[in-house]
Request: fold
Amino acid sequence: MNQLIKKLTGTGVAIVTPFHKNGSVDFKSLTRLVEHIIKVNVNTSFHWEPQAKV
Reply:
């Protein structure tokens, strides 16, 4: 257990892809989000994108 805790230190965030109302990816907002995550020294990020829109 201690080895796992040592490996899981730091800050991690989930990145959710921003979309425009028409369903296209909002690359401008995504870029700002990623730049902010880098700026605040997040150690790990996870990207999840749903296979289908609900």
Q: What stands out?
A: The two ends are 38 Å apart (CA to CA).
